[in-house]
Write a structure and sequence with these properties.
The protein is α+β, with helices and mostly antiparallel strands. Helices cover 24% and strands 28% of the residues. It is elongated, with a radius of gyration of 20 Å. The termini are far apart.
Length: 212
Amino acid sequence: MTTECPIPVKINLHRKTRLLALHFSDGSNFELPCEYLRVFSTAAEVKASDIPITGKECVNIEKIEPQGQYAVRLVFDDGHDTGIYSWQTLYQLGSEYQKNWQNYLTKLDTLGYQRQQSEQQDRSVKLFYFAWLADKTGKESEEIELPQSVTTIAELLKLLRMRRPEIAPVFDQALLRPIVNKQFAELFTHLDHGDEVALVPNQPTPPATPDI
């Protein structure tokens, strides 16, 4: 008995951060770097080589072309356009990302190749607080700089809890409905520089916090 592979229900390309976001029918969600997808291309000439592809740290995806009901062709801005990624391949690349990437880095170390590090760019978002969250934070809005490690709503809420430990419970993800750029978002929603993030409580009363 074979189990059908989950199929993607949404595919979004974040060009500024060079990430391909994949949302599958079984609830799995992956954000895969374009570099990762390029060096693990399904093209025959890539798969046949024992030497890992290098120099793709800043590669981006130019186009995503559907291939029937089973795959997409990813066209990269370095001219590579022969990789056909089936739903099963994308799912496997997402599920095995950590293992695959670590193996790739190990091969680069063996070759003595040093990956180029992208220049760190300023990343900030504008936060808007609603209802009792505005009372608890003492403000209706603020702009904050995001560390490189903070890329999603869930990580943003964790950051806010760390920055404001005295009111950390109010940033519990179960209590808030995030909205990014005026659209309802999820905890895994990726954040880009300049995004506007509204945090709206989903219950009428706030959690208990110490008096300050």
